[in-house]
TrEMBL record:
One of its GO terms (biological process) is negative regulation of apoptotic process. Pfam families: FKBP_C, TPR_16. It comes from the Eukaryota. It comes from Grallaria varia. Its EC number is 5.2.1.8. TPR repeats lie at residues 194-227. Residues 152-186 form a coiled coil. Gene3D superfamilies: 3.10.50.40, Tetratricopeptide repeat domain. The gene is Fkbp8_1. The keyword RNA-binding does not apply. One of its GO terms (molecular function) is peptidyl-prolyl cis-trans isomerase activity. This is peptidylprolyl isomerase.
Length: 246
């Protein structure tokens, strides 16, 4: 009884998950999450919002809604469908963002970035992008106390990783402008980040901004002189700019 979860609300569920042979691979007496935040498999993301408090449901999930083609070491084989038994225990308004100590922000950001990597590896780039953005939100959230120098450095490193991952996901979703913006945000934090420099140079070249692209790629080459990819990109630009011989 009671209304189904609305967007942004937090839910608590009891979950059992089993393979086709009956092997139990999920057991959580009280799993709490916000649907849409990408913190659980899609079977739960999509299924739980259809339920009412107190309801018990069974979801037979094809692999793409569970752990995808790779599976999950060591207990979920590749491309394995799963049967979930889910009891919706509670629905409540989502928690307001709370100030967190730097260590908790780092931990939450890392968890969400890893969740994004999981989605990216299985080809769900929209879910990956959502997780990377949530990771950035956690890293940028309010803090109980200001981070110390080492913590601030680690927060910045994590932000750059998330922004580079956002750019990769945006490219998979054909969002070139959004990918370029993510690269530029990463470079504002870390001007010598080789990954962001290379991708920014490639994106500028795709837009026909060859002079800007060449400057960025030469900077990337200074940082990594042995990179065959950067040499190839610069060679391609040079050929494009050279007039054809008569």
């Amino acid at each position: 009884g009671g209304p189904r979860p609305r967007p942004g609300q937090e839910v608590s569920v009891k979950v059992l998950g089993a393979l086709e042979d009956g092997g139990l691979v999920e057991r959580d007496p009280r799993l709490t999450f916000v649907p849409g935040h990408g913190d659980v498999v899609q079977a739960l993301e999509l299924g739980v919002p259809t339920m009412q408090p107190g309801e018990v449901s069974f979801f037979l999930a094809a692999c793409r809604y569970a752990y995808g083609r790779p599976g999950r070491e060591p207990d979920v084989p590749p491309e394995a469908p799963l049967l979930f038994e889910v009891t919706l225990l509670e629905v409540r308004d989502g928690p307001d963002p709370q100030p967190l100590p730097p260590a908790a922000r780092l931990r939450l950001g890392s968890q969400r970035r890893e969740r994004g990597n999981f989605h990216f590896a299985r080809g769900d780039f929209a879910a990956a992008l959502r997780s990377y953005r949530l990771a950035l939100h956690a890293l940028d959230g309010p803090a109980i106390v200001p981070p110390g120098p080492e913590e601030e450095e680690e927060l910045q490193e994590q932000r750059v990783k998330c922004l580079n991952n956002c750019a990769a996901a945006e490219l998979k979703l054909e969002g070139a402008e959004e990918a370029l913006a993510a690269c530029e945000a990463a470079l504002r934090i870390s001007p010598d980040n080789g990954r962001a420099l290379l991708r920014r140079g490639q994106l500028l070249a795709e837009q026909g901004r060859d002079a800007e692209a060449a400057l960025v790629l030469r900077r990337a080459l200074q940082l990594d002189p042995a990179s065959k990819v950067i040499h190839a990109e610069l060679s391609r630009l040079a050929k494009r700019q050279s007039p054809p011989s008569s």
